[in-house]
Amino acid sequence: MKKLSFLLLGIFAVSFAFAQEDEDGSTLNQPINRAPAEYRWEQMDVGDFSDPVAYAPIRQADVMYYYTIWRTIDLREKVNHVLYFPTEVRGTWKSLAQTIFDAVDMTNPEKSEGTLPVYTDDMCLMPTPREDIASTLSVSYSIPDIDLETGEEIGTKDVYIQFEPKQIVSYNIKEVWYFDKQTSTLKYEIITLEPILEYVRPNTSTNIFDDDQDQDEEQVEGKPTKRRIGYIYYPELRPYLAKQEVFNVKNNAQRLSFDDLLTWKREFSSFIYKEANRYDREIADYIANSRDQRLESEKITDRLRTMESDLWEF
After folding, report:
1. Residue 238: CB partners within 8 Å, gap ≥ 6?
2. What is the pTM of this model?
3. Cα–Cα distance for residue pair 313/191, rounded to 1 Å
4. Fewest beta carbons within 10 Å, which of 39, 150, 283, 314?
């Protein structure tokens, strides 16, 4: 009996020693191979069964009227928080920006096959080289190099900052509204989506941004700076959106994807900043006051609604 007890004690000691032998914790910190401790039932991934719902066929002869407009979706508005949060991946939930970052996949800049392309123009004719996308998603500047012993400035050194998905605070979308006489309905389709980054430029006297001249709208120390990433062709983005689940504030059990939210339900708030015009100018180019710009945006929206009702008059 004593021999059996000593044998079991020895086996336990050996197994404990093997479990603890890795000082860096590689044995103890291995993830557990099971579902997250969240539900008792098996939670299906929305990507396992979702595909983009195809648009209904449309002929040019059936389009009685169409109009092209550009909108801004500001993620700081409460109704648009569903597109911004969570800022970190939470189970099967991601933000829209994280979904786009994963689709573009800049973790491997040399990889191009199977990734989402980004374009330099809103006609989506000129793809942006992946090395240019990588430089757009980072910023470099110079800061004083201080001698730790004397406290004197001995020169400058370069600092590189990699942007994160949570720094995307707005989106510009280009969409077309048209009246289909076959179904007698006014329809809309998103054509392109343009993420806008915002970051604060560090307040140092020797900041030198070497790649911001053509990309940033504002370059003021200590104030938010906006940067355009590029244009994404929305039909190419839809397969990624359809496979990404969105947090449904009304019912967590009701599965909802970004494609459902943006393409069909259209559950977001936005304002028009440009309409198709002969001068190719934005509203801000001829109206300086921000309040009047919003009023002009509402005027364009009312014009679209009025156009639909006028088509029903005899």
Report:
1. 52, 259, 263
2. 0.79
3. 30
4. 314
